[in-house]
Amino acid sequence: MDNIKQFAPIVYTPTVGLVCQNYSGLFRRPRGMYFSAADRGEMLPMVYNWPADEVDMIVVTDGSRILGLGDLGVQGIGIPIGKLDLYVAAAGINPQRVMPVMIDVGTNNKELRENPLYLGLQQPRLEGEEYLSVIDEFMEAVYTRWPNVIVQFEDFQSKWAFKLLERYRHTCRMFNDDIQGTAGVAVAGLLGAVRAQGLPMSDFAKQKIVVVGAGSAGIGVLNSARQAIARILGGTDASYREATKNFWLIDKMGLVTKERVHIDADAEPFARDPEALHGLKEGASVAEVVEAVKPDVLLGLSGVGGIFNQEVLEMMRQSTSARPAIFAMSNPTKNAECTAEQAFKHVGPHIVFASGSPFTDVELGGGKIGHANQGNNMYLFPGIGLGSLVSGAQIISDGMLQAAAECLAAYMKDEEVEEGIIFPSISSIRDITKHVAAAVMTEAIKEGLAEGYRDKDPKEMAEMSQEDILKHVELNMWHPKYSALVSSPR
Ligand SMILES: NC(=O)C1=CN([C@@H]2O[C@H](COP(=O)(O)OP(=O)(O)OC[C@H]3O[C@@H](n4cnc5c(N)ncnc54)[C@H](O)[C@@H]3O)[C@@H](O)[C@H]2O)C=CC1
Ligand SMILES: CC(=O)C(=O)O
Ligand SMILES: [Mg+2]
């Protein structure tokens, strides 16, 4: 907690990625709970083997998309461990009340399946109903023992991430961090990029945004940004349709248009109409799209390191924005779409830059600094989890997530944003998290979702002032303060 800036890159991205890649060789003792396909029918009794009586926070993965490193099977447990370390440091969740979980349904990583040291099931991943039955059983088991626990889904491949979110979010206290946490952070960053141009927030509705990557993270960001723009435009059905025109979506097959034969249902609303293509064709490359669109924002959630190459970045010089924004959000560092240095060098000193993994600031000469912001869901997930926990929210609603994003955006001062600093320093993450949690709790109360926590019942919560809410959040954050074992001599 005292040295979070130095330690976050170790317990979290990028080092946690390296740990996951080598986990079977590094393993000494389990630091989380493993539920495997072979445990079907046994998960409820298994849950009672977890040594802590109370669990507040679970982070669960099936290891199928670990950062931008692909399917790492059970070795992905490093991610829940690292995310929960941040829950302790940033949100003040008691470290005895966190539970990292790996659901082992096999792996499609052939190399791991053939590695005699691999710790997980050496079989291809379960699919379809069989897969769902494992996740259902796990969810039922943990909520039976700990009805108030918050479950954060992390690093599931997109194919399942959206389905599982839809399956549980209406009845359980759960969220998907890659879809929902990332979206909030990205929207806060996009609003920061508008402010950095000296424009009013309503000008967000005029921004041209190219998103590279149509997975859980990219589509989550697009949905959330579309919602924010549609609200500016009036919030009608027509404004939602209008808002989609701001976006250009590129996946591994290039620009996504309505001409695409097999288009993902989640990506479909963002497919460009043939009459609004600016002369581009279905499948156009990143460079072609940037050249034709001259976007205000180029945002990467593709997992492909270096895809914002010199050619692409030099084309961003033609951006119609006074402060073009380059968000290279993929993790870990090697998978970032470009480095901070490359972005400032090839686009120019006036850009706003953010990346998923940390880069150091760039010296621009003449005493000027190019700020390398870290645009990572770590700014939001601890506050979303904490705010949901201490309000006793029944579910985690869109309104609560939006309140979290707005709180993060408002955290930055105008002078900072003008300098291109759009996210706060990691060293203030505990304070940010406290405010985000209070915003989440305020919204949960407003929506009638707060069921109370510890000595506070819903009626008392409904009467709390902003100050009371902040105090309630703070009081429920754990601090590592221990009583002295030996009393000092008189
Ligand atoms: N900064 C942050 O807070 C977060 C960053 N991420 C990062 O985002 C990345 C993607 O995550 P997901 O969306 O869950 O993964 P995913 O695997 O579901 O999606 C990747 C997307 O990139 C596209 N893609 C792949 N190769 C491409 C290429 N050569 N050109 C253009 N598009 C290409 C794919 O078609 C797919 O749509 C990962 O590296 C992850 O670490 C994810 C969540 C949060
Ligand atoms: C940051 C994060 O959640 C990811 O890269 O998947
Ligand atoms: Mg993740």
What report would you give on this structure?
The active site is at 12 (proton donor), 83 (proton acceptor). This is Malic enzyme. Belongs to the malic enzymes family. A divalent metal cation binds at residues 154-155, 178. The structure is a single chain. The protein has 490 residues and is of the alpha/beta class. 41% of the residues lie in helices and 11% in strands. It has 20 helices and 14 strands. The protein has a 7-stranded mixed β-sheet, sandwiched between helices. It has a 5-stranded parallel β-sheet with strand order 1-3-2-4-5, with helices on both faces. It is globular, with a radius of gyration of 22 Å. The mean pLDDT is 96. Bound molecules: 1,4-dihydronicotinamide adenine dinucleotide (NAI), pyruvic acid and magnesium ion.
